[in-house]
Fold:
Amino acid sequence: MSEAIALELKSPFEASLKDAGAGDGVQVSERRNLQMATVIARAGNSDIAARLKSAFGLALLPGPKRSAANDLAFVATGPRSWLALSEASGLTPKLREALGEAAAISDQSSGYAVLRLTGPKVRATLEKGIGVDLHPRAFQPGDAASTSCAHLGVIIWQIDAAPIYEIAVFRSLADSFAHWLQESAAEFGLRVVPPR
Amino acid sequence: MTNSQRLSSGGLIDRGKPLSFRFDGKTYRGFAGDTLASALLANGVKLVGRSFKYHRPRGIFTTGAEEPNALITLRSGARREPNTKATTVELYGGLEATSQNCWPSLDFDLQAVNQLFAPLFVGGFYYKTFMWPAAFWEKVYEPLIRRAAGLGAASGLPDPDRYEHATAYCDVLIIGAGPAGLSAALAAGRAGARVILCEEDFRLGGRLLADHYQIDGETGTQWAEQAEAELTALPEVRIFRRTSVFGVYDGGVYGALERVADHLPQPPVHQPRQRVWQIVARRAITAMGALERPIVFGGNDRPGVMLASALRAYVNRFAVAPGRVALFTTTDDGWKTAEDLIRAEIPIEIVIDPRANVAEWLMKPIARAGTRILLDAVVTDTKGGRSLQAIEVLKSGSKLTFDVDTLAVSGGFNPQIGLSTHLGGRPRWSDEIGAFVPGELPSGMAVAGAAAGQYKLAECLAKGAACGAVAATDLGFSASAQPAPRVADEAIEVKPLWHVAQSRHKAFVDLQNDVTSKDVEIAHREGFRAVEHLKRYTTLGMATDQGKTSNINGHALMADLVGRAVAEVGTTRTRPPHVPIAIGALAGPHVGAHFKPTRYPAGHEWALANGASMVDAGQWHRPRWFTKPGEKDWLESVTREAKTVRAAVGVCDVSTLGKIDIQGRDAGIFLDRVYVNMFSSLAVGKARYGLMLREDGFVLDDGTTARLASDHYVMSTTTGNAAKVMQHLEFCHQVHWPELDVAMVSVTEQWTQYAVAGPKARVLLQNLLGDALDLSNEAFPYMACVEFTWANVPMRLFRLSFSGELAYEIAVPADYGEALLRELMRAGASLGVAPYGTEALGVLRIEKGHVSVGELNGQTTAADLGLGRMLSTKKDFIGRVLARRPALTDPERPTLAGFKPVDSAQRLRSGAHFVPLGITPSVENGEGYMTSVAFSPHVGSWIGLGLIKRGPARIGERVRAYDPVRGGDVEVEICSPVFVDPEGARLHV
Structure:
């Protein structure tokens, strides 16, 4: 009976992400069909940057940054670790091929749920959960932080100065995060826009 | 009701917006811009509450958070807020307040009889009076005291409102928006710094709103409005109104409470009532002003007695018209009150100043208005019932009586130094102003204006601006110098008068706690002379006002008694919170179901739709059992699920178990060091059960770890210990063996994993996967594992068994978790498949003697669990050395065994203690305890696992399972912990 089966994909925020309040203070969309992987530099290996440059044309920035080229982004999550993101399929094998023994790659495509947030009140909303200073003088496009939001572990990075932020939470915590977001953004109005 | 005591014009109230409110059931009218206190005064309400100990009538004493007297219960029902200071409540239409601590009514309070027993209630009375007999304390004295004392009562109902937490960053935090704070904010804000300005009041300006000032030819109020307008227009300045900074913490962190909706009957939809801010500031300027202190004289607590600066504020800002007024001042500032009252055409009967000399120019306009002035005189006592009727004055040895209903008292000003002491700074006495000023300040903090003892307006404006500019320049902003505003000079002389010794009646030091000058004397006499001892012994300075009007007077009285200077005696330092904070605000949004985050596995919704009852497993919600139509109780469902697994096949969600990806050339070596048994020798494509010890030799966790490639393992942990194990591994790598080529990351979230267990498990998987895999026992034996792709989805299959049956665990990326579950159920439908929850999982593993949470409790060794032989002798591993300690290898230690009730109808309970038969159970003769129990469908009775002394050697022996908590007392037989298939034959079919 196997030939006919196709497993249906269910995104983590499918059921829980809803509009809240009146107004258009914050717009949120779920990033679906995103391939993700944890990349951890292996002992003694320092040529990850060179390998990424040659394989993907990606210039890896030092520090807590998001580095991106074409469809591939590397968000730093620690001194020697990154969360890689791409919309193209086969991310983990591609990274394994490019990085070889330089890094340990673990598929996390289902491990995180990722939201894209924007709107005039996005910072006023995020400051109700995130203890990191997101003011433009302190946090800019390309900056990333591994922190917590209302007791949930999150990774946040900024895409542009609009501002657009993206936030990754563990998949199982999507409902709890959505609840926090709705409660916190309701006074400004939260609008769910179609996933991208 | 009319505003009988309201001036016809003036003040910062909006006469176009009348607001009606109720106090003790009576309806009154106030205006927008009023506080509850000002509105009550304007309506002629003087008696507002009863005091804590003596139930004496009390009125309104101040205008702010320092209020010791006017505590009321605000709102009703679930929103009831006891002990609210009427002076801090912004009036709103429909406000409802009631007096408290009185019975049957505020006007006639029976407990005022306490005053007759006052000698009993002196300082330290709790300790003296209720010492004996000891048993009476809990049952008689404490309930009695709690009923008699205390103030308002909580609603006891769930709070219907929301509270929020938030974090804000700034370059310069300014606390207080009076003249100094506004100047500081302007200076720092104009320089481009990120500024947060916090003001407790609903209106910016501080004393500028309450006094008559001229700044550059404008009124103080106009100047404040312009400053506010300019600050509002600066993009990097945030103004937090109705916000009290309540604490200073390390690293420039400040706690603040924003009363978002306290000034409304109910919070608007989606608005919290209050918000707790954590403000991270590189620099802070406290500009909280100074608080006037009273003078301690007889009957100084009667309604109608209030601080002179407060009376001035009620007249100037709130247009309250007092009746017949007297002024008792030992400060120049007090004379300003007289001047302002005369300006408002409120006659003053008399001004009494204990000083022999007062500047002529201060007195002249007062004398000209016909007010009598008595210098070198004191008020000794007051008269009146429920409010002030007369004062007694002593002048040159003769006693004079004046009929007045309002007495304004000015004893000097205390800078608000509370926040400066939160990190340990000791206040410094200033002889010049007769008060304590901030001493050593927390790093990054400056103090400006009256809070620093700078009492003249010119100083406030100049020092505020200077502090703002310095803070901004320090941080790299360029602040341009601004011309100092022109203001008139002021007289600020003060000659402290701590106590009118000639008073005959009770003279109150602390109005809120009913601490009198006599109580301070008693504390002194009995040796409680240090200010901290004085506080504990008399309760001076405790409760909702934290002694803001009383501390210094009390400490000065003690200084007098010990014959030392106030500077030497010192004052108490304070701790956060500076003002009372509701626990609900501190809890924030983390209440009820959202107290902690909840984690849901991918199959959660399917489980709910299929009759699952859920159980909390750490943060996870897991199906506990699945109720089928017609099933009457949980035991019926659980028994059916367990039987289905033993006879056919069941599916259990095991996604919540921790999964850790471990990669690297040295991954095997790393695992050898963290597990007691060997993993470097494990073949690729195989899994092995592993046991991990803590450094101290006790068991940390267990689980299976599979080798997917030579440099790639995936470890599983128990659900509860997943984070702890991850932390342990990272610690081991980073601290013990950073040289190892190993990388680890949690992949718990990535993989949804289902156990497929039972004799028909293989058929089910073959039905699902078809030819994709050869699942024969030969090709895929017990403990085999494989990665494969099916339906274009990467998958992992492990042949593991927790139930003792032929079993597999199949893993899929969590996005496909629910879909796989549906497919598993479809593939097993013809086989009689059933989903099973954690209860049946427990039954199956107890029947097999597998250890779990109850046994892995942090107090057991490998040998205790019957796993001693797993400890490798060929390698070193964490916990090896300390596991050999004599106490851990003692053969008398309780060791794992199985238990059956002798009478098979009896129910067993975990937690029951084992004691030998025929003796009285006691702690001394306990031999161990039951760790896990289940009703076993296989055995046909309840069974248990437990730890008992020399367990394995005592099989067949009978003991008592004694459970006094639940009244259980069952004779049990010790047996093997493996109740099902002891040879393990079913695993290998």
